[in-house]
Design goal:
Structural class: alpha+beta
Protein name: Homeodomain-like DNA binding domain-containing transcription factor
InterPro entries: Homeodomain-like_sf (IPR009057), RNaseH_sf (IPR036397)
GO molecular function: DNA binding
Radius of gyration: 29 Å
Strand content: 15-25%
Number of domains: 2
Largest sheet: 4 strands, mixed
Distance between the termini: 81 Å
Keywords: DNA-binding, Homeobox
């Protein structure tokens, strides 16, 4: 039986929690037996207090928390401004702010999870242009208008749907692979175009990709024919938009704002011209 140092165990969990390592990869990097590392992780996950294996003994009363409310406020404020900060960085900044404070990375991790419910999640990346001056000005122009999402807006969007979509996970007996029969081909992806408003569903359209071929010149000068599928293009969306406008006119729904995302088929000038004309 081999005993591992608390530093090795702490490094193991730093790699798993902070760096996203698998248990096996973290074990190999820290020199810990893979099966032992798996038991460490299982013990850690089953412990309500999220204590590192081997880092605690039988309780002798209520443990004293090193971090005060002032420390907590600093950590929460720093994370709000720096969501990608790692535990090493949090420890460094905390100790710089409060001289003489000595605390481990694992203690900071447990404090964030249990005291503030702050956990590590997949990062939602927001483009910088989303909050640029130009976009903010556009938002203000919309908010200054008489647009009301619950009264005078019509929403248009598209979604792809494949009839051969299959689940990626299945169940089977322990030690045996989960197998399932799937179609040989990938299937055709249909495009569903939909329009809704506060009055309900305005129009639903389905676009099936059309077969198309084109010629491409190779490096040797010969032309080859390439077959493929054509999805929803501007002319298709223009025809659908005309049907939407006809339905709105038929039901005497006037003066509506057309709300769409920034998909390429929504941006051509002919689309904007049609909306203004109707």
């Amino acid at each position: 039986y081999r005993k591992y140092t608390p530093k090795q165990v702490e490094k193991l969990f730093d790699l798993i929690i902070e760096e996203g390592f698998t248990t096996k990869a973290a074990a190999l990097a820290t020199g810990i037996n893979v099966r032992t590392a798996q038991n460490y992780v299982k013990t850690y996950n089953n412990d309500p207090e999220r204590r590192l294996p081997g880092s605690y003994s039988k309780p002798r009363g209520r443990p004293r928390n090193k971090l005060t409310e002032e420390h907590s406020k600093f950590l929460v404020d720093y994370i709000e401004k720096n969501t990608t900060a790692i535990l090493d960085e949090l420890k460094l900044k905390l100790c710089e702010k409060f001289e003489g404070l000595k605390i481990s990375i694992s203690a900071i991790h447990k404090h964030l999870v249990h005291k503030h419910s702050i956990t590590l999640k997949k990062l939602e990346k927001i483009p910088a242009a989303r909050n640029s001056d130009r976009v903010i000005a556009l938002r203000k122009a919309i908010s200054d208008a008489d647009m009301n999402f619950s009264k005078n807006c019509v929403f248009i969007d598209e979604a792809g749907f494949n009839l051969h979509t299959q689940r990626n996970h299945g169940r089977s007996l322990k030690g045996t692979p989960a197998k399932g029969t799937v179609p040989t081909g990938k299937g055709v992806t249909f495009i569903i175009l939909g329009t809704i408003s506060q009055a309900g569903i305005i129009n639903i359209g389905v676009k099936k990709p059309e077969s198309a071929s084109s010629k491409k010149r190779r490096a040797d000068g010969k032309e080859v024919k390439i077959n493929g599928k054509v999805g929803t293009r501007t002319e298709h969306f223009l025809a659908y938009l005309n049907n939407v406008m006809d339905t709105l006119d038929k039901n005497n729904i006037k003066g509506q704002y057309i709300v769409m995302d920034n998909a390429p088929i929504h941006k051509p000038k002919v689309i904007k011209a049609l909306i203004k004309e109707r």
